[in-house]
Amino acid sequence: MIKQAIIPLAGLGTRLLPLTTVIPKELLPINGKPGLEYILDECIEAGIKEVILIISNKKKMIRSYFQNDLFYKKIIKEKKDKRISNEYKKILKYKKIIKFVYQNKPLGTGDAVLKTKKFIKDNFFLMLLPDDLIIRNNCSKEMISVHKKYKSSVMASMNVDKKTVSRWGIFKIRKKLNNSNFLIDNVIEKPSVKKAPSNKAVIGRYILPKEIFKKLNKQKKGKGGEIHITDAIQKLILDKKKFIGHNFAGKYLDCGTMNGYIKSTIRISKK
Ligand code: G1P
Question: Which of 32, 46, 216, 221 is deepest in the core (most CB within 10 A)?
């Protein structure tokens, strides 16, 4: 069973400036609730029991969001407002399962994952990138059942317009297992159109094996001077570790760019 999830949240959020000069992007509201809550709800519904949030000193506001007990208790005592007590109950539900670790230098997703090393108990764990919202179908739940079926690591994937490949991690298929699952031959971070091995993009849901930490310990900086999880995954693939690309059923919303964030807000409010 996959019981632990990690969520990297220490990125600077430059694609959402100027909002992110004062608010962590994951707390920006999407139809009245922070984007991060959608991600946590997805985890809880998928049966995850512990979520490790990787934050930084600059993004301590994320921690405060979940640790405002005194404030809530005082307000609830004074106001006796049903809505406020329900919101507090919801926060307590999240608080029970989350843990914080720090990544104070934004060195990349791979480096963020490495910070969780000593907390991961089982052989596999889930990682969710909060910029990627997936609605209508619980993608984490799908990934967990793919992992169970094939006893394999899994990455969520989506067919993208070939012109946009340099925005994503792109993988080459070794074998098509069925219409939505593909055995991966290799994966490359943000390739040029010329170098892209396909139009299959990695989206921010991963089931990773514990062995990834060994690779991350030695992982050198890649594209843009960052330590990429994609590069460590490629090392595992070279060691013959099985990775499956899973084309998920839900609808993908990109909340990590200003344009995408605005579109996502409109899309979710119509739900
Ligand atoms: C990250 C990954 C990339 C993946 C993408 C999905 O990129 O490095 O491989 O395709 O998430 O959203 P980022 O969005 O951090 O640039």
Answer: 216
